[in-house]
Amino acid sequence: MGISPLMLDIEGIELSSEEKELLQHPLTGGVIFFTRNFESTEQLSVLIADIRSATKKKPVLISVDHEGGRVQRFRSEFTILPPLASLSESEQAETKSYAHGWLMAAEVRAMDIDFSFAPVLDVNYAVSEVIGDRSFNKDPQVISLLASEYIKGMREAGMASTGKHFPGHGAVVEDSHLAIPIDKRFKEEIWKNDIIPFANLIKVGLDAVMPAHVIYSELDDKPAGFSPYWLQQVLRGELGFEGVIFSDDLTMEGASVMGGYPERAEAAMAAGCDMVLVCNNRYGAIQVLDQAHINQTEKSAQRLLRMQGKPFMNRSALLDTKKWAETVDEITALV
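-> structure tokens emitted (335 positions)
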């Protein structure tokens, strides 16, 4: 049995009866956590167990955005992680990138969460409102090197990687959560810079990619996540990517050009996404479940199984290890 193509969110710190029904819907294959879902590690453990119990008849992915810096959903009882930009500014940047990736993944996997959507592979042009220090660096080769080590750390802790936001969100000022960004650069410049980290990481086994809700107007009139050109011709074809493609959240303003929520989900899947995210809008999620005509291939459903977390120790065992204590000291020194 593969994994179904819709990822939803939870409104609070425990599952409601409605949410249990939504999780059991045939199209639902994933859950993403936000800060509002976390009160304590004990509470989170119960919530995760309840999700696993409610979906015990089918495999479901549990995920979170837990990059560090501005984007870290769980803070109390978790190590406060520095932004990725701090790694390239430190001595022994490669070693610290590995350590950051391992520590992030270890603390998340120890809670039985399958993966965090990481790492960010965008180039930092120092103009984006939403990327900024979430990026490793302004140099695509430095990004490639540090991200490669970061992903090695994630894998050591049993977590698959997701590179975002393909083909690059860093050159536009607007935040695609709030606007419809348009990148007017020509192909040559995008390929010379933004594509490089994705191309390099794909060669060493990047597990998943999340495309940007950005329109690259010189190349296509659709945001990348809804574009067969970007997902099929470039990502699958030219770059040879065989991993998972996640949409970014379909409730973001950058996705609004594609119509209503069912139309957005249909367009993203038709363009080549394996799983679509519908978050922070319960009405929109129900619309997608009830109205969207989504045809998921068996190959796509099987591909999503690769994002399941590999076996890892539980939280109490992790916190007893010397490696965890030493890594916490190493990484928190960068905050």
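The longest helix spans residues 93-109.
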